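Why show two proteins at once? Because comparison is the fastest way to build intuition. When a single record is shown, students tend to memorize it. When two are placed side by side, the eye starts asking what differs. So, the first record is below.
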Amino acid sequence: MRKSEREIADVHEKFAALLRCGYMTLAVEGEGAPYCVPLNFGAELAGNTLVLYFHCAREGKKLDLLRKNPRVGFSAANMLRSVCGTGRAEILEDETARLHALQVLMKHYSAEDFSVESFSPKALSLTCVVRISVDSWSGKRLVRP
């Protein structure tokens, strides 16, 4: 990072900055050009490792590209901070993992706790859930501390 005085080095502070963002942009290897798409997301820390989740339809360009190359980049920002990084996407098939991911995602947008039973079986059958295991990520304050 060029302006090291703006770096958010603490993992928990970076995570808090990420959770203040309303959406993230996912970048995948496209056909002839990068493919970037804004997404709603959920995030959690597994120790000091960041894990991201998003959901989408069961078919589409994003999934086609992820199946060809699961390496991704991401970024999220608000008026004062930004977080970006890289990782590997995995389409979740295990129902327990899918439900956990959706609970994490919903917690990002609501103070309400969503039980496993609150998810409609019909909606679940139409929903693809993706986990991103983050390899590296950085945070930056857009103003000096």
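Second record. Ask yourself what differs from the first in the token line.
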Amino acid sequence: MNLNELHERLTRLSDSEQAYQAGVYFNGWEDMPKELVYGREVIRIPYQPLAGHGEPLSNAGQNLWTIQENLSFKRNSRFNPVPEHIHSYIELNYVYSGRCPQVVDGTPVVLTQNQVLLIDTDCPHSIAALGMEDVMVSVLIPKGFLRDNLFLRFSQSSVLSDFFINAINVQTDHNHFLLFHAEKDRRISLFFQELFCEYLDPSVNSGDIMMYLFSLIMAELINVYESDLTQEETFSTNPIVGILRYIEQNFATCTQASVAEQFHISQNYVSTLLKKHTGKTYIQTVQAQKLKYAANLLKNTDRPITEIASEAGYENISFFYKKFQKQFGCSPGEFRDR
């Protein structure tokens, strides 16, 4: 499937959309269970993953596609508003074209092309009627899958990734949603297009390819979030991101004094910033990065453990084993075997 064929498929009017365009209103919302949220009645949409292509979710125009057992995604109906509702899964909204006005937890949000909106579980939100050019695809994600699988894997790579994953989780928990300004990001549009093409025109290893593409989407959203975060006023004079990146790149040789010199701040302020934003002291942060680096080598190479420990900055192999056991609950050899 080429991109022209994908565009035709995503923008093609379904039978229900043709009815909505003609003025028919979907009244199935009335039959769904209601709950009181913030003193008002909202709809609870059940999450029932459906096998096969083109199965209805809760609206005849919302086609649910299933990616293995953990993820599903649907193209939202046009010409028909979605009233305020909640659900037990995380929703990742991607605007393929046009725009999508929503009200999320009482906050008006207008998504534009290539932007992504992460909505937490049980967060009340509604969607305005979309126009002909407005195409939004929503990925439905079990909460545990996103945090216990994808985010956990990303956070294990470095202290900087861990910082951004934690920031995303805290932001989503606090505000119940998070908007990623990916409108100028080349990779997000590319990855989503490939994901949709792979679903609609599957290859031999389609399931694995789609899961890898989704992982790439989440990894790139972390990059987008980093860009958004570092441009905020509170971070314009705060070098925490730069400090974490410097430690990530120089953990084997850097000292607290060298970090302070690099960023023209006092050594005490280095630890103050790290403790405030990561909950770890300078020494704990460096140890965490060393262990993450060693764990990555153990998983992806067959190099001797002593060699890995040395490259990670540990001259004392016994000390390395002690710290690794405390961090991962097993020895380096057991970690590799797993």
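One difference worth noting in the second protein: Confidence is low (pLDDT under 50) at residues 49-64.
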